[in-house]
Structure formats: structure tokens, C-alpha cells
Amino acid sequence: MLDSWLTLYYTPYIGAKRFQQLIQYFGSAQNAVQADNLQWQAAGIPTSVLSHRQKNQQHKVEQALKWMNSCESHTILTFQDENYPPLLKEIHDPPMILFVKGHLSTLLTPQIAIVGARKPTSEGLYNSELFAAELASAGLTITSGLALGVDQAAHQAAVNIQKPTIAVLGTGLNEIYPKSHTKLSQEILLNHGALISEYPLYMPPKPQNFPRRNRIIAGLSLGTLVIEATLKSGSLITARLSMEENREVFTIPGSIHQPQSRGCHQLIREGAVLVESTIDIRTALSGWIETSDSTLQADLFKKEAIAEQQTPAIRSPRTQISTPNTLKSKQALKPIELAQDHPQYTLYQHLKTPKSINQLVELLQQDASTITTDLMLLELEAVITADRGFYQQKQS
């Protein structure tokens, strides 16, 4: 059965969306592999894809199976596997195949994603280590992307107290990136953690793959904590994907003079929960973690006592958060023009009114991961805005 899943997985131009399409139409991967081209056409697969079925992918399938059988801690999960993480199944565009190295059971534990800047401030690094250690001690598995900066600090903090952590790679499992994190990846495995990837084992780092893997980080987790992020940070993608899937998003405010704080402040405007300590997160996720009620109540009392001793801050009137309806009222302004040969022109044209990623998937018939990447590119060009999971052309 697994070889049929891998055969589909390695077939060119069969991404997650078409993979799902085939499984739903034929009932199983084996039936899909055995079906002829006419049946694939009936399932909605374009004729341009059919010629690629003739290419022999057997050596890749055998290589993957050999890797899995070479070590007890190597696993290849299919979407229909009983050990496939249930929260990840709920996202709009779940990976059909997951390569796992390490402890499979850790994928089924309650998780919190911790993401943020690759070049954080010293305070950002401190907060990454502090929050990761405290949340791991409270019974949450720390999930992140093995990147430099906040990711690294969060993974290392869990490892330092011998708690499990999960690294979601934007490369194949045999291509650790960055190379400097090879030792950290080994320490993760030694502490009951896991490395996972949807990419082939020897897939090298490619820029377009890192935004795509962010949906897995968000999908595995009960919530996402963003610790420092610029307005162009990929961490904002992870946070917004969490919002799209109705998961909690937490963020720590920072100095108005630091670029690394601006992304966090933007998320707060979009509805993220402002947190000052892990108590805020543990309270929101109290049904999922080991912290006893008495311990949490004691911590809350301590936090309130400290707050009462401090000089009250002058509070400005609550900023009104934009919603899709309030966004529509801004249409009097002129949208920024894009050239018709722009790679994201078609997507951009659909953003004259606010759209969610799920709406865009239905309109464009594309994978959520592809749309997410294109939205990020448009955001980097500063031609669209994002507000509480809705995207719209920027007005000028």
C-alpha cells in the first residue's frame, strides 16, 4: 500500500490538491496507480500531466522505502495512517506524505508553535528561551522550523531541559538547513523529539519551500507564539495560517523603535492575543496541558499582585480592529496598478475586495500553499494588505 502512495507522491505535477483529488475519486492510492489515463482524466487530472505518468519513479520509491527500513526511528506517514497528526488533517491543504525521523508518538502530543525573527534582539532570544522552557515544562511540545534566531533558541531551550521538540524542515530530512544546526537536530532526536518534512529526502533548500512548510508548523499546533518579527517576516505567514484554521495566535509586544516588534504589533491589530508571560498562554490552552488548576491559579494571583505594585500605564483608547466590512469602506481610494504580465496578476485581481485564503483556493483552484506563497510575495511588494486573515489590494 505504501509503495502506491509513494508512486503518486513522486509523480511530477501531482501536488497535495491533485493527490487528494485522486484518493477521493478512486478510494485508494492503489486504485489510482492502477487506473489508466482515461480514468485519470475522468478524475479531473489535466492531459498535460498524464504523459509524466510514464516516467519510471520506481527507483525513488525504492530509495524512500530503503530509508524507512534502515532505522526503527524512520517513518513515512500517509494521510490515511492512524498515526497522522489529527490537527494537521484539519487544515485546508494537508501534506499527503510526511517523512518522520525520531519519535512518532511526539507528533500526537499537544503542541505550541514558537516562531520569529532570524535576527532577534537579545531580549527576543531571552524571551524565546524563557517561553519555550516554561511551556515545555507545562506539558506542551515546542514546534518550530529549525531556522536561525527564535526557532533555534526555542528548540534549544526544550532540549536543555530534556523536553521533546519538533522541527518542521523546509528541506528533505537528509539535508539539514542550515548546516550549523546539524548538532541541534541530533540533540532533538536524543530528547524524544522529531524531525519532519513533506519534501523528498534529499531536497536541498529552495526559497519557495519555506513558506509552504509554515502551514505544517501552524497545522500541528494548538496555537502559534510569535516572538519578534519584522513586517516582512515569514513568521507572519505562520501566524495568519493559524488564524485561518481558527487556532490561537499569541505575540509579545516590544519597543516601537525596533523593526523586530512591528510584525508583532501588526498581528495584535489583526486580533492576536497580547501575552506578557506564559500564564496567558497556559490559561488559553489550559484544557490541553498538564498544569494543575491550583498551580495556574497561584501563578495568576502572583501575576496580578505584581501588576498592582507597578505604576499603572496610561492607556490609549482601544484601537478599532478592521474587519472585512470596514475594509470594504475604504474602496474610495485607488488601488495600486499591477502589470498584466506580473506573475501574481490573476491573484491580485481577485483581491479588489477582502478574501481569505480558503476563498482564494476555491476561486483559483490552486493549493493553499501556492496561494500563501504568492500572497507573501505580493505583501513583500507592498501592493496588498492583510487584516485578520483577509487580503485586499492596497489603496494609494
Automatic annotation (TrEMBL):
GO terms for biological process: DNA-mediated transformation. Coiled coil: none annotated. Residues 76-283 form the Smf/DprA SLOG domain. It holds the Pfam family DNA_processg_A. Gene3D superfamilies: 3.40.50.450. Belongs to the DprA/Smf family. This is DNA-processing protein DprA.
